Every structure is written in structure tokens, then in C-alpha cells.
């Protein structure tokens, strides 16, 4: 892996130098992990003029370390001695000691207070904005990253499949969510990719619903959204079911509609497609059926080391899909008081020649009556 | 509750006006919750010149809402129409529209990029630093807050007690952690207060250890640290056990030492005690036994709406304890390769006349052989 991290840092360095900064300070945890591997909490990475340095807040034995291994052994480590020190400040000090004249910072992550502390310790450094440079590098995944997402998706499919075989009526959203998270770990996940959402009855179809003590009842819609983290990579799957023997007509109609919207979104995932066109493909199916109110602000988003990455598939998004970009497609409709439907897959954009979008989450999307 | 929130906002307003700002923008989630009640994700609070306003990122139906109720109904809501907008920017706009000339911001929470966006939308506002004003208000708890912590501690005690009655040998750290989290919810917690830590054998005694697939074995030290969130309030308990019939002599010695250090810390919790003296009371017991290496940077910390709040009980901490401040006392020793011991309680500082420190986490601290 060490070569992979080194190659990523080399690409970032090129961008920095193009931007006029010989040095960069990476503070956002997922970005540090992308460039240096799993590191203890609060670790920052200095892309130095002479040398790259991983600056850790304390002896790692005493610090929770990111799951999934160790940081790049090829990197020099600098460990703060005392407690309470800010690794970003120490890293800026090192950058100045290396003779850098400018340092690019992640101004979208660094707080105003930390930025001030950095400036005060390194007054000779010209502080620039690294912006989302690392996030941009992270958008297109290599096959190693995609295989982590694929395994995570298999784990999520397994956990969901097992839940469907168990008794659901009478159990609370909270308990179902916890059981799903336990099963994710049973099957080898580092942990859940995000707080598992289980939404029954009137809650069903709400994006990001936090599980409550609402019990599953006959006739409910039940929507479930979960994901596994595997070696740091996070995937997502969402399905909606009906509880009981036979769905009501309105449930079948609503389900078919959301399914059609989700399929339209999936089918629009081709290299070169504009983000907004993917969103429109799904959204217009719902619009044309009169569901203009209460639609989620996005149809999908990128996934990777974070569960919500670029690209954002929204009406206003700029940019086009590349091959090897994993995204979710997750349209939904929620009818206040009645519940609703969400269907959510994680797919990888692939060229037509390679068979088109690769579906990672393969649990059936038929409307199951449980 | 509405009066409670209003009273807290009134106290903050006094501090702001003393600091020369008629308006303040609170963005840190726990601070927003403290001043306005449970609000949807990304909600910010404007303490306005004419009126206080809760600014939400979107229709709350579409946004995960903090567990434990609704925001203060007495507050005016301003909901952003489009997606992707920053409530902090919208709030600054409102502040300017109210005729404020200055606005105090949480520079320790707001990123450089958001701060710039705020400045650009409200150029006529003088932007000041609110600093940790809200965090300072949060240090001393009212009895309502303490009762939430007390209930959370009871829940954590129950979950831990049940685990101790089950078979442990052969099970992995991960599974024990998940079972504890399930039991927390079984007993009415909103969820875990932080990622449950279960550490067996050589991992035992490591602060913030992330559970692994290491299985519990005969002769292990097993240290467990968990907490419940109840109505948003987070407590913490940590215990260390030995697995098997009879602990080894080194285990008994190490346990007795950490127990003595933890007791010394607890007994030093009196109103007016300096934070650093509480730390020293516990630390010197370990120091005098020769354990100067690898001691955790802190002996304890405040708890409340966040699991790690002020005060920090460290050698360098400034300040003195007040009554009604809940803190943890959690010294530990970890011997690389062999494991170690941590003992962690949540207590509330009380005057001698009221019986001294109130122990919230009452699970026995005898060395149990399981």
C-alpha cells in the first residue's frame, strides 16, 4: 500500500505546486487516511517542501486508532510530547523549519481558531487554501478501493437478507437497527458506515430517519437504510418493504413509482453524464406523478472513505461522472402521516463496453411483503 | 422547558453584551441544543438584536433530527428553501437585517471557509469571537440535566451488570461491545454515549481502545468502557475484570494501584478544588508506584451534552470545580504487551454538606473474576 499512498501524495503535490504552494497541510481525517493510511485520531499530514511528515497528537497506544491497519510506514512520524497540543500547529512549525514560504491549508475543515494558531506559530508562511483538492482526488476510485466497497456491499446485503427472514411485527425501529448493525459486524464489517435507519409506518421513506420506539405493525411500510464500513470504505443500501400478506393499492402504486425513478437514475449512470442529469432522470419520474413536494434535495451522492462524498447528484450540481466513481441512487417519497418509500443502491460508474454501471448492492428490489 | 432555554439564552446575551456584541451566532450542535433544544441536523441559532431565530437547513421532515424531542417552540424558525445552503450564512443575513452592527461567532467551531461566506453575505457586520461562552455556561448543570445523567448512568450500570452474567470466554471484543450497545438501548438509552470500548488481554487498560476480533481468554484482563445517552446527556463508566477463577498476583497489584488512584481522584472532588489538583491526586498514586510512562494525558473530564466537555482534569488545566459539575474520574495503566487496568466513574461535584461527590455509576469496583 505504501506505493499507493506515495502516488496519491505525488498527485496532490503536483496540484499544490500548480497552485503555487510547495507545502500543504492536510487535516481532514478522511483526507489524511487517503494519503497516509489509517492513522490515530487527530493525526495530520504535512506535505513538506523537503519531506512528508505525519504529525500525531500523542503516543498512539493512548489514542483510538482508525480501524483497518496502520499508517504508511514510509512516512516520518512526529508525535507531540505533551497533551492538548494541536498537530496542525506543530506541522506548520515543521513546514517553516523546512524552509517553506507558503502552506496550503484545508480552509473548509480548519476552524478559524486553529487557522489563527497556525498563523501565529508560523508568521513567515504565506497561508493559502488547499480547498477540496484531496476530495477531488478521492472521487475516482482505484480497483482496490472499489473491491473494499464491493465487500462492504456484500456484507450489507447479507445483514439485510438475514433480517428479512426474522419476525418483524412488534419489534421497534431501534431494535431492528441494532440487530442490523450487529449482523454487519458478524459478517466482518469494521462497523456500520453510518447510523442505521429503520423507519416503520408513518416514518417509512424519511431520509436519514433516526430509529424510534415505534413498533412494526401489520400494513406498515418498512424502510431500512444501512451500510457497512470495510477497511474504511463505506457503502449504502436502502430498501422498503410492506408488512403483512398483501400491500394496499396505494402502497403498490407508490412503490412502483419510486422504483421507476430509481431505475431511471441507475440507467443514467454513464461516464460523461452530468450530475444534474442523473438527478433529473430520477426526479422527473416523481415530478411527473405530481410528487413535487417533500422530495429529498439529492438523488444520490458519492461514497468512499466517507458515506457522503462528491459528487452530489442534485439539480444544481456542476460536473460530469467519470468511470470508477461509486455513487448512490436513492430517490424516495414520504407522505406525511402515511409513510413512504425509499430505494437506495450503491453502484460504480462503468463504460458501456464494460457492461455499464456495476451494481454493488444486489438485494432484490421487488416489493416484498414480509 | 421553553423557559429553561430562554433563561440560558438570556445569560448568553448578557455575556455577549458585556463583550460588546449585541448579536451572536451559535453553530456548534451541542451549544445549539443547549440553548434551543433538540433541533434538526445543521441547525444554527441566531441570538438576534431584536429576536432569536433558529435557522434550519431544510424541512425537518427530510432531515435527521436530534433524538429526544423538538426544539423550543417559542423560537421563530427560519427554514432554508433550497438545498446546499449554509444556515450560518442565512443567519448572518438575518442579523444584518435586524440592524445588528456586530456578530459574535464560534471561531473554535466555524471553519475558515464558512467564516468567509458569513463575512461576504454580511459585510456591514463586525465579526467577533464568541469563544467558548456557551461551553462555559454548560459546565455547571441544573438538576434536570443531572437527572438525565443519573438515568443514563443507571442504564449503563444495568447493561454492564447483564453482560457480567453472560459467558465471556471465547467471544470477541467487537461482539461484547455490540451486545452492550444493544442492552443500553434495551434499557431506554437514546443510544451509546460514545463508541463502546471492550479491550481484552494485551488491549486491556488502553484508553479509547476500538474493539477488535481478539477473543476473551482465560487469565485476561478485560476492560470495558461504555455510556448511555439519555435525552441527549452522556455519561461514562469503565471497569476492568479478570477472566478465570483467580487473578495473578501482578493483576491484583496493578488493579489495587489503579483503584487507589481512582479513589484518590474521587475523594478530591470538592467544590473549589483546582482541576489540576484532582488530576494530581490520582496521578501521584501511579507516579509513586513508578508508572510514569504511558499514563493517559488526563484523569477525567466533564460530561453532559457531549461526552468530553470542560473541565479537563489534566496537569496543566486552569480553573476550579464548582458544585453541580459532573466529571469522570478514569485513571488507568496499560503495560504494552500485557494489558492493564482502567477504572472510570461519572460523579457530580457536591458540597460536603450535601454528602460530597455523588457517584452516578454504581457498579462495584471490586476486582471481579469472571
From TrEMBL, chains A, B:
Residues 8-140 form the Creatinase N-terminal domain. It is an enzyme of class 3 (hydrolase). Keywords: Aminopeptidase, Hydrolase, Protease. Residues 148-350 form the Peptidase M24 domain. One of its GO terms (molecular function) is aminopeptidase activity. Residues 192-213 are annotated as: Disordered. This is Aminopeptidase P family protein. It comes from Streptomyces griseosporeus. The lineage of its organism: Bacteria, Bacillati, Actinomycetota, Actinomycetes, Kitasatosporales.
